[in-house]
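May I ask you to comment on the folded chain given beneath this request?
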Amino acid sequence: MTRGPTLPAHHLPYLPTPLDAFNTAPADEARTLLLHCLHSLRWADRIADHRPYPDPEALLAAADEAAYDLSPADLGEALAGESLPELPEDTYSAAHMALGAAHAAYEARFGHAFVISLGGVPRDEIIDRILEAIRSRLANDREEERVTAAEELRRLARGRLLGLLSGARNHATSHNAPAPGR
C-alpha cells in the first residue's frame, strides 16, 4: 500500500507559561507582582533580581529562602502591608465583631496586623480557625510571635506566588490590598 504525500508538520504557537511571563517581565513589573505576594521591598528585589527561574519549585524555594532572611525591619514592612483575613461573605455579624475584638487585642499587644495562612482550610471553618489562632497567639511573647508571624508571612507569600503561577486567585491570601509603592 502506498501512501500519499505527507503534510508538513503543524507547529502550534508557543504560549508562555505564567513562570515564563514572570521570568521575562520588566524588573519593575516583576517587583510589583511580588509585592502583592509579600509587602517587603527587599524580598521582592531579591527574588526579581535572581530571575530566570527554571521551574516553579525553584521560584518557591527562592521565595522561602528570602522570607527566612527577612530582617526585623523587613518583617515590620511586610506586616504593615497586611490586614485582617477576608471572611466568607455569609459570615454572621457576631463573628465579625468577635474577630474585630480579638484582632484589636492582638494589634494592641504586638503592634501589627494578625497574619495567618488559610490555604486548605474549608470555607466553613475559616472564622473558627482565625479566632482560635489569634487567641492562642496572644499568649506568645514578642519574640515567639515575631517568629510565628514571619512563618505565616512566608506561607502567605508562597500561596500567593502559587496563585500567580496558576493564574488564579489563591485562597491562602489574608487580604487583597494593593502593593506598596516603590
